[in-house]
Design a protein that fits this description.
The chain has six helices and twelve strands. The chain has a six-stranded mixed sheet with strand order 3-4-7-6-8-11. The protein has a four-stranded antiparallel sheet with strand order 1-2-12-5, with helices on one face. Strands 9-10 form a two-stranded antiparallel sheet. InterPro entries: Cu_polyphenol_OxRdtase, Cu_polyphenol_OxRdtase_sf, Cytotoxic_necrot_fac-like_cat.
């Protein structure tokens, strides 16, 4: 259910695995993505199960319509009847408002400044890394009073640089923008390490307290992986403040 969870000064971080839900194959079991072909009723039930296991109200969780870009949405309450914005990061200064990000190989990025009372969740795939979604999220946080030196960062399960094979031209293009993303697969072909790229961006922004999940989604059968399975579910990362 919740594969990784920790709390720092009232900031809560949690990442799901694929177990403990109600979805059928190929989305078994805890698919939290509503746009992958799964039964909507099962997704709703899974989101309720995941939220309750974290001790938060499922109706208050703020989701995004993720599009592999760098747009940031600012939330002051659940979207309710409003359209879910097209964005790859969401930021709030409302304590007790959980933010969520969906992934299945991309990097889920959770950020919190407990002193300022500001949190963010970001979806950093290869396009988002290059577009700068993580720097955009940090800028939005600072606009609400956060200080990068106080921000606590957590990145969750994602495909690792040993497994994320790409064409040589793509590796060159991405690493020209984010050199730390340059990688090689375990079988010796061009690759990208998006998690390393995200952490390099955070370091340059002054975010010093960072933790990276050791889990590679492509290697772990406890996690969903689009690159491994194509038709599959989505994991979620959650962040909120007391």
């Amino acid at each position: 259910m919740i594969g990784q969870r920790d709390t720092v000064n009232g900031a809560h971080f949690g990442f799901t695995d694929r177990w403990g839900g109600v979805s059928a194959v190929p989305y078994e079991e805890l698919n939290l993505g509503g746009a992958v072909g799964d039964d909507p009723g099962a997704v709703t039930a899974n989101r309720e199960l995941a939220a309750k296991s974290l001790g938060v109200d499922p109706a208050r969780v703020v989701w995004m319509n993720q599009v592999h870009g760098a747009d940031v949405a600012v939330a002051d309450a659940p979207w309710g009847d409003r359209p879910v914005p097209r964005a790859d990061a969401v930021v709030t200064a409302e304590r007790g408002l959980p933010l969520a990000v969906l992934t299945a190989d991309c990097v889920p990025v959770l950020l919190a400044d407990p002193v300022a009372g500001v949190v963010a969740a970001a979806h950093a795939g290869r396009p988002g890394l290059v577009a700068g979604v993580v720097p955009a999220a940090v800028r939005a946080m600072t606009g609400l009073g956060a200080d990068p030196a106080r921000i606590v960062a957590r990145t969750g399960p994602a495909v690792c640089g040993r497994c994320y094979e790409v064409p040589e031209e793509m590796r060159a293009d991405v690493s020209a923008v984010v050199p730390a993303a340059y990688a090689e697969t375990s079988w010796g072909t061009p690759a990208l390490d998006v998690s390393a790229g995200v952490h390099a961006q955070l370091e340059r922004l002054g975010v010093r307290e960072r933790t990276q999940s050791p889990v590679c989604t492509r290697e772990s059968t406890d996690h969903f992986s689009y690159r491994r399975d194509r038709t599959t579910g989505r994991l979620a990362g959650y962040v909120w403040l007391d």
